[in-house]
Amino acid sequence: MKSSRKFARFRSLVWLGAVAFLVSGCRIDMHIQPKYLPYEPSSFFADGRSERPMVPGTVARGELRTDTLLFTGMENGVEANRFPFPITKADLERGRERFNVYCTPCHDYTGSGNGMIVQRGFPHPPSFHSDRLRQAPVGHFYGVMTNGFGAMYSYADRVDVGDRWRIAAYIRVLQLSRNATLDDVPEAERSILAGESTGQTSTGQPAGGQGTGHSE
Questions:
Q1: How far apart are the C-alpha atoms of 25 and 140, rounded to whole Å?
Q2: Are 137 and 59 a contacting pair, CB within 8 Å?
Q3: 162 Cβ partners below 8 Å, 6+ apart?
Q4: Where are the domains of the chain?
Q5: Cα–Cα distance for residue pair 106/115, rounded to 1 Å
Q6: Which residues of 167-200 are buried (b: 16+ CB within 10 A; e: fewer)?
Q7: Rounded Cα gap, residues 212 and 214, in angstroms
Q8: What's the number of CA atoms in the CB half-sphere (13 Å) around residue 176?
Q9: What angle do CA 31, 32, 37 make, to 5 degrees?
Q10: d(C-alpha 43, C-alpha 162), whole Å
Q11: How far apart, in whole angstroms, are the C-alpha atoms of residue 148 and residue 164?
Q12: Which pTM does this prediction carry?
């Protein structure tokens, strides 16, 4: 009876000792880890660097860019003249808002290229209303925002992919606003414009309201 108690006690002490040894070992490993500090050299690699470059072709999670049109603005090696997704009124509103934030300092609110920093001496960018840019495909504007062009640097780190396309769509709106014809206006709205051009409203009244014949 006594011998069995002694054996059980001895076995318990052995287990406690083993657990204490393992715990102390883990604590040492967690406090003193084998690691390289930033820029610390390494004799393991041939180039002597501990920092390793990414393996060629590495793609971060969520960054697989298989849609060439969406991410490059190109199709078959040339600038595309279509959008990678349908442009809605909400997209145009977003494009206008982003354009006003990022583009107006140089291009001004109308796209004429006379923004505030241009007025203060910065090189004058081309007008979006020039024949060359009115005929340029929308992929051109996306590519310039992505890669930069001339004195303009890339905005890829400031404006995300979707917003670059929305800005390009809004640039098309600005261009159309300067070069639209009556045929571009919905038929239901043409009578209003026709009335304004003759000084009459759609109700037959003078465009300024019911005049009294007096001028101020």
A1: 62
A2: no
A3: 85
A4: 68-194
A5: 4
A6: bbbbbbebbeeeeeeeeeeeeeeeeeeebeeeee
A7: 5
A8: 10
A9: 110
A10: 46
A11: 12
A12: 0.65
| CB 123 within 8 Å of CB 151 | yes
- Output the CA torsion 176→178→183→186 (10° steps): 60
Q: What is the pLDDT of residue 159?
A: 97
What is the residue whose two structure tokens read 């038929």? 187
Q: Which position has the token pair 């934030």? A: 101
What the block records as the tokens of 18 is 């083993």
The answer to whether residue 62 scores a pLDDT higher than 50 is yes
Find out if CATH 2.30.42.10 is the number for domain 68-194. no
- Do the beta carbons of residue 137 and residue 81 sit within 8 Å? yes
Query: In 10 A of CB 154, how many CB atoms?
Result: 13
E-strand stretches of 23-105: 74-75, 78-79
Is residue 207 within 8 A of residue 196, CB to CB? The reply is yes
Structure tokens at 143: 């590519």
Q: How confident is the model at residue 214 (pLDDT cuts 50, 70, 90)?
A: very low
pLDDT digits (tens, 9 = 90+) for 175-184: 998 888 878 8
Give the pair of three-digit tokens for residue 112: 């004429």
Q: Is the pLDDT of residue 89 over 90?
A: yes
Alpha helices by DSSP H, 56-200? 68-72, 89-102, 104-107, 116-119, 131-134, 138-147, 161-179, 187-197
Nearest to 164 by CA among 193, 141, 136: 141
